[in-house]
TrEMBL record:
Record keyword Oxidoreductase present: yes
Keywords: Oxidoreductase
Cell membrane among keywords: no
Name assigned to this protein: Uncharacterized protein
InterPro entries on file: NAD(P)-bd_dom_sf (IPR036291), SDR_fam (IPR002347), Sec_Metab_Biosynth_Oxidored (IPR052228)
GO molecular function: oxidoreductase activity
A Pfam family assignment: adh_short
């Protein structure tokens, strides 16, 4: 585990340790954890260039003005995205970035919302919550990989719930069967899919480091926008959140601070960088990857910025070929929506 003091010290040193002019894409940066990360990124880097993806033009404008107050030397570019529960909108969003940029050092993904409802199928044939948590995020990564690989030491961070991987259904990866529509099944699927898919990406694209993180319970206004039953929502927002939740949660600012550490720490290197760490001392400073090996390029990271493991479960999926089946399913669905070969 990494103490908050250590995290803050590492972040404060970025002005001298990180190259100036880092190019970042932050999706989900207009609220909660993503917003906390965005402010920390602007505060601690020199001449940053940050693409900020959001739904509301006025909100983006306000955030950009605030960021200029934090760091006047930064360049902040708003990217409007109407509905990230649609893969087609993700493609339009990445196209805006690709036409403006030549390389990306960091891709940060934290978009999402809460729901306890069953399957909410979009016109694209995917469950909306599954898309914003998983399919859409993987589309962001796949679309932006050429720009990531053009950077010297690129990294991807997807904020979800690493370490809580669970049961998935290889014969129903799209969760279309009625008994697989519940919120618990949906969440376990998105979390497990993310880890397995990032692991495959790290093998295919060893220049890029991939982190799936779990920020813990964070105080945000996500409950205000949650798709809950009105009575239950009132209980959560006005009774549970101000009392019990406040005792066991951390602030969005602290979560953002810790996410910046993960996004920039030399512990979470790409597979290529990990392979070049040949001495025992160098390897000992690298985090354990999702495969249990140090510096393997894909990482599950817990609330305290520590690498977490689920080897028994993940190895069972690997042995059964589920990781490869998931890859085929995911790419197949994304291609189906946008057209084959896209």
């Amino acid at each position: 585990m990494v103490s908050l003091t250590e995290v803050k010290a590492a972040n404060a040193s970025l002005h001298s340790t990180a190259p100036p002019g880092l190019v970042s894409v932050v999706v989900g940066g207009t609220n909660g954890i993503g917003k906390g990360f965005l402010y920390e990124l602007a505060k601690h880097t020199s001449n940053p260039k940050i693409y900020i993806v959001g739904r509301n033009e006025a909100t983006l404008g306000k955030i950009i003005q605030d960021l200029k107050d934090v760091n006047l030397t930064g360049t902040y570019i708003p990217i409007l995205a109407s509905d990230l529960t649609l893969v087609s909108v993700v493609r339009k969003t990445t196209a805006q970035i690709i036409t403006q940029e030549k390389k990306i050092d960091l891709l940060f993904l934290s978009q999402g919302y809460l729901t306890l409802s069953g399957r909410d199928e979009s016109p694209e044939g995917l469950d909306r919550i599954s898309t914003i948590r998983y399919y859409g995020r993987m589309r962001f990564i796949l679309d932006l990989l050429p720009l990531l690989e053009a950077a010297p030491s690129p990294r991807v961070v997807s904020v979800l719930a690493a370490g809580t991987e669970g049961t998935i259904y290889p014969d129903d990866l799209g969760l279309k069967q009625p008994n697989h529509h519940g919120a618990i099944v949906q969440t376990a699927a998105a979390v497990t899919y993310t880890t397995l898919f990032l692991e495959q990406l790290a093998k295919l694209h060893p220049k890029v480091g991939f982190c799936h993180t779990h920020p813990g319970i964070v105080r945000t206004n996500i409950f205000n926008n949650a798709k809950f039953n009105p009575v239950f929502k009132f209980f959560v927002v006005w009774i549970l959140a101000p009392t019990v939740m406040r005792l066991i949660s951390i602030s969005a600012e602290e979560a953002g601070t810790r996410q910046l550490y993960v996004a920039t720490s030399p512990a979470f290197v790409s597979a290529a960088e990990g392979a070049s760490s040949r001495t025992e001392d160098a390897l000992s400073k690298l985090a354990l990857g999702t495969d249990g090996k140090r510096g393997s390029g894909a990482y599950m990271v817990g609330q305290k910025c520590q690498a977490v493991q689920k080897q028994e479960l993940l190895q069972r999926y690997r042995d059964d070929g589920v990781d490869k089946k998931l890859w085929k399913h995911t790419v197949g669905e994304l291609d189906r929506i946008l057209g084959s070969g896209q």
